[in-house]
Design a protein that fits this description.
This protein is α+β, with helices and mostly antiparallel strands and 414 residues long. The protein has twelve helices and nine strands. The strands form three sheets. Strands 1-2-3-5-4 form a five-stranded antiparallel beta sheet, with helices on both faces. Strand 7 and strand 8 form a beta hairpin. The chain binds adenosine monophosphate.
């Protein structure tokens, strides 16, 4: 899957297959490892210092040369948007200006002495490995002046799912559209988990829409691999409103179930067109989960009382039953509600997996999912909706706050 960044493909056209071209000379060795293992250079057991220095300077020159070549392939245009750690620009391939790309220029983060923002490192590492129609394609990486990293990404001109959800005045959609969008999201997350990657920031704002209506999972800045079940991981990941109870209670060992909870909340939000569990603080988020789903106890979640944050869990609210979910999400039908309830299981061990989700009856029941070319589109052509539209009424700064928190707290995410 991963291709050596030093093998520069003949990119006169953009390829959808994974052939990320990049000199990557500034990327830490754990990411650029393919470079060492696949460039065919025999490893010397005894090296003469001068020869090493000469080889290093030759390879540096080569890396610089390749970087220049890669950079020259693209022209950068207007700014498309700004994220926590990057500005995103529209770009195109000089050899074929019809081929548009998004160039994500990583902001210099002085707090990281080696100059590499961990979000960027994660994004490159995982996107290089994951090639799937519902996951954004990373075409290339190059560094520009001042050692700024630039990620050349597939251009996704139709905004994101959050814009569609919030634009209640102009965008109408129904159960068949929700099923189509959820199918694409579920396939994306299934593919991540099959490849032992946790996304850890699934939310409507990170589901970008291609010109043909295909939904693509983007922003792998908090992703990590989970192949070692004994290695503790940080609990402070996933935007609060989409964060599962095990993380809010401080679990350091977790699985793909954390993403599934977020997927369930995206499904709920698609139906009610507002975030379903929107806490104002982490404590409030846990309280709201108890109200919406039920209080975790040893009965419904064996072992939960041993989690560090459990002491703060208050009164016992019984688990919500099917009737409660039917009253709120009945437009999904009985099977849709069943799937939703299985994604919102408090006990992560009992939560449905992405693979099981794909086998659920809901997909085969009427209505059939809408064809991607017939899905509702955002109004106003390719213009970006204002930032205000992205916020929930009455909670103006929460999402922005969580982005700042993410920058502050999650920088050291392991
Ligand atoms: P991000 O840093 O990934 O959150 O991106 C910031 C903003 O840039 C997003 O909210 C989008 O408006 C825009 N953007 C990011 N990636 C793309 C893309 N591949 N195609 C088009 N617009 C994008």
């Amino acid at each position: 899957m991963a291709v050596s960044p030093l093998i520069v493909p003949p990119t006169s056209t953009l390829q959808n297959g994974r052939a990320v071209s990049s000199p990557l000379k500034n990327i830490p060795s754990n990411i650029a490892s393919a470079q060492a293992s696949s460039n065919g250079t025999p490893v010397a057991t005894q090296v003469v210092p001068n020869a090493t220095a000469a080889a290093q300077s030759t390879s540096l020159d080569l890396a610089e040369q390749l970087n220049e070549e890669e950079k020259r392939k693209y022209a950068k245009g207007k700014k498309l948007g700004e994220g926590t750690y990057a500005n995103v620009y529209l770009g195109f391939l000089r050899s074929d200006p019809n081929q548009l790309v998004a160039i994500k220029k990583i902001k210099i983060q002085k707090e990281f002495t080696d100059g590499m923002a961990p979000d960027a490192v994660r994004e490159i590492k995982h996107l290089q490995e994951l090639s799937h129609p519902n996951i954004i394609t990373l075409h290339s990486v190059f560094s520009s002046k001042d050692q700024n990293l630039n990620l050349v990404l597939e251009y996704l001109p139709r905004g994101d799912l959050e814009m569609l959800i919030r634009d209640t005045e102009n965008i109408r959609y129904g159960a068949a559209d929700i099923k189509a969008w959820m199918g694409m999201l579920t396939r994306a997350i299934w593919f991540c988990h099959e490849n032992f990657v946790l996304h850890r920031d699934i939310k409507p704002n990170n589901l970008l829409i291609a010109a043909d209506g295909e939904v693509k999972l983007a922003d792998f800045g908090l992703a990590r691999s989970f192949s070692d079940p004994y290695k503790p991981m940080t609990a402070t990941v996933i935007t609060r409103w989409y964060r599962p109870p095990e993380l809010l209670l401080g679990a350091r060992h977790y699985s793909g179930a954390v993403d599934i909870w977020s997927v369930g909340l995206v499904l709920a939000e698609l139906v009610i067109r507002t975030p379903y569990i929107a806490g104002e603080s982490d404590v409030n988020q846990t309280e709201l989960i108890c109200q919406a789903v039920g209080t975790p106890t040893e009965d419904n979640w064996p072992g939960v009382t041993k989690l560090a944050g459990y002491a703060a869990v208050k009164e016992g609210i019984p688990l919500r039953g099917r009737d409660h979910y039917m009253s709120l999400f009945g437009t999904l039908g009985v099977e849709g509600v069943d799937l939703l309830m299985k994604t919102l299981s408090l006990d992560p061990k009992k939560r449905i997996t992405a693979r099981e989700m794909l086998k659920h009856d809901w997909w085969h029941k009427d209505p059939r999912p809408t064809r991607k070319q017939d899905l509702p589109k955002k109004s106003g052509g390719q213009a970006k909706l204002t930032e205000d539209l992205k916020r929930r009424p009455g909670m103006v700064d929460d999402d922005r706050g969580s982005k700042v928190a993410r920058k502050l707290d999650f920088g050291a995410a392991k």
